[in-house]
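Thread: quick sanity check before group meeting

JM: Hey all, I'm pulling together slides for Thursday and realized we never actually wrote out the predicted structure for the chain we discussed last week. Dropping the sequence here so it's in one place. If anyone has concerns about the input, flag it before I start.
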Amino acid sequence: MASESGKQTASEYVSHHLEHLTVGEGFMTLHVDTLFWTWFCGLLFIGIFYMAARRATTGVPGKFQAFIEMTIEFVDDSVKDGFHGPRKFVAPLALTSFMLVMFWNLLDLLPVDLVPVIAHDYLHLDYMRIVPSADVNATFSISLTVFVLIIIYSFKGKGDKGYLEEWLLHPFGPWLLPFNLILNTVELLAKPLSLALRLFGNLYAAELIFMLIALLPIYIQPFPGAVWAIYHILVIPLQAFIFMTLTIVYLNLAYEKH
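JM (edit): ok, ran it. Output follows.
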């Protein structure tokens, strides 16, 4: 932490900032900070959109209402272009995933030492990481949700028989059924893995760079910090958009008959 960085080596400083606030042991360990900040982002998303809905007018919209409407329209257009089935559930899912990942990533713009120091000085907590998307457990959790939905939409779009035939007979036909099963299993598992690891890798690297900048002398930090923050502002919506788009594409591939 900033107040202790002078007493720590660089490796100790980075290692401390990469530790989670946890409860439990082994497989049952819970990352309390990841859970808290995920709930915080989720409630913030709900609160903002609820406020926009309550303040919505039929006349000329204000800037806040216009921004919310543009966001919803952008997500809805993405779903229309990418998913060729009933969109009643997929559109809200896409909006939720986009905004949740967006808020997750925005937390990375807070000063590296700000929240850990507050947690240490006022709550007496030794650790506090605030970027859920830099925690592989968080990215895997939402990817597993997409994984379950892929299976559900596969049965929903193709039917039991159609999905079973595609699983066992595609792409080489009945004579190479074991190879079909292996390839389709790898393809299915690769989808949530790619979603989780792409988001985690990008935000983990960004978090590390902010930590390394914080180790520089105070009079050097502003320039590289500002440059990296500006670049990161471009990365934040991009990663949210990629996660949302891949979710839509994967559900469409699952729903459509091939």
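AS: nice. The chain has one domain: 5-255. The first strand starts at residue 22 and ends at 23.
JM: adding both to the slides.
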